[in-house]
Amino acid sequence: MPNLEHPAYPAADLLRLESLVPCRESQVSMLLSIFGERQQFSFPSIFIYGHTSSGKTYVMQTLLTTLQLPHVFVNCMEYFTSRLLLEEILIQLQTCSSDTEQASPVHCDSFNDFVRLFKQAVASRELQDQTLYVVLDRAEQLREMEANILPAFLRLQELTDRNVTVVLLSEIVWELFRPNVGCFEPFTMYFPDYSIGHLQKILSQNHPPEYSADFYAAYINILLGVFYMVCRDLKELRHLAALNFSKYCEPVVRGEANERDTRKLWKNIEPHLKKAMQTVYLREISSSQWERLQHDGGEPGQLKGLSAHTHVELPYYSKFLLIAAYLASYNPVRTDKRFFLKHHGKIRKTNFLKKHEKTSNHLLGPKPFPLDRLLAILYSIVDNRVAPTANIFSQITSLVTLQLLSMVGQNDQLDGPRYKCTVSLDFIRAIAR
């Protein structure tokens, strides 16, 4: 018996919709009851929130497309200014109201112009007889626009006197949206995270046709047992499942095990899943590189990813600042004269140096150093003359923000700030090359 039932929509469309949105039947049923019939006025604005990869965008797109409801779908991250956003809505409205795919350019400088042009765009009989849905994905970007944009969208039905519903999709709660002056309160709806059972059911639907559904479901169960505690992003898990399935099938392909021999299959896939655990979310290497790495039996560190080349993105003087900070952290102050002065005089070998020559500073960790010592070492290792401008000091602040340097103590110290270098020797060697 189907879970989705509504008298205004054909049973075949609802059955197809139910198959396309597994584990989200209750949310879809709630949306259908809010939407009502096609010609009825729906709620003026709906706010849907939930964590990333909880199905908000997919469910809304699938619902509107499957039931063939007139709609406009705009990503606020792509159209990041109010003018771009309003013009894109009007351009998509032209496509909805006409049979031609080509839309003429639209110029909209204010929300007053948008309301006027919106009324003209929905003047066709097709859009007047049923509810038009304006869906704004990544709606948290509206907070960065003019103060009147969000309250106006919430009252768009009232301002235009048309049958329109605005749907806001966001990853943050409504309390972080609400303006101080107050505005029309939308109908809020929460999309919870997928449970491990939901993820098992959704991911198992993508099984390859050459293998049985039970075999692929067992593989997904192993995958979730490894990654569920650190990753619950459906897109990332789907990517990991597609990337590592060929390695899981190797014993079956070679004839060393059958599909029910779970123990042999697990022993074959376990080391490769541990390697994949190191690159979850990072995308340091491409899928083809990862497959080549699995085939060769190498380690992920053998392929240089983004984190291995972070120094390339640093500005010119930031590299020298980082090298100077490393030298200041791991070299004692008494050695500066010997290392960085050309005419430092005669150096006496004292018993103190002989006593401590076996102790490595790398084992003791980085030592704090003052700002003036950092700049003094910088001036000595850079070939050309460097003026102590605001640009140099801002780059030091940027290195602290990137956590390549750490500030020790408080900012209001009388003797100036003190820093520590937090990067490794390999990182400094890569920059020095």
TrEMBL record:
Residues 216-283 form the ORC5 lid domain. It holds the Pfam family ORC5_C. Residues 21-167 form the Orc1-like AAA ATPase domain. Keywords: ATP-binding, DNA replication, Nucleotide-binding, Nucleus. Transmembrane segments: none annotated. The keyword Chloroplast does not apply. GO terms for molecular function: ATP binding; DNA replication origin binding. Belongs to the ORC5 family. Component of the origin recognition complex (ORC) that binds origins of replication. DNA-binding is ATP-dependent. The specific DNA sequences that define origins of replication have not been identified yet. ORC is required to assemble the pre-replication complex necessary to initiate DNA replication. This is Origin recognition complex subunit 5.
